[in-house]
Design goal:
The structure is a single chain. By secondary structure, the chain is mainly α. It is 68% helix and 4% strand. It is built from five helices and two strands; from the N terminus they run H-H-E-E-H-H-H. It has a two-stranded antiparallel ribbon with strand order 1-2. The chain is elongated, with a radius of gyration of 17 Å. It starts with a helix and ends with a helix. Its main location: membrane. It comes from Crassostrea virginica. One of its GO terms (cellular component) is membrane. This is Interferon alpha-inducible protein 27-like protein 2B isoform X3.
């Protein structure tokens, strides 16, 4: 087992022992989904048409782009991530949100 995998397992086990936290399986699922979301985000952006060369012609992004797209809008931020890649803070936010949603959903299953 790599040291990274060992550290992730240790973190999952530690979180699962906190009061109010459901169980190890739910925590591992949440961490796994969060990590998968971070890995998949660039592919999802490219698939939607936010490429390193700009908005791809005929893509979903091209269909929703308007001449009045405001700076700082979700469209502008997605385009920036497609061209420059996602910042570490953005990756952390994507992973945390996806993992959090997964964990909360697991409480109702």
């Amino acid at each position: 087992m790599s040291s990274t995998m060992g550290l992730i397992l240790f973190i999952c086990l530690s979180f699962s022992m906190l009061p109010g936290v459901q169980g190890l399986v739910e925590v591992i699922a949440a961490v796994g989904v969060g990590a998968a979301a971070v890995v998949a985000a660039p592919a999802v952006l490219a698939g939607a048409g936010f490429t390193s060369a700009g908005v791809a012609a005929g893509s979903v992004a091209a269909m929703i782009q308007t001449p009045a797209t405001a700076a700082g809008s979700w469209f502008a931020l997605s385009q920036s991530a497609g061209v420059l890649g996602m910042a570490a803070t953005t990756k952390a936010a994507v992973g945390a949100v996806a993992g959090g949603i997964t964990y909360v959903a697991s409480l109702f299953v």
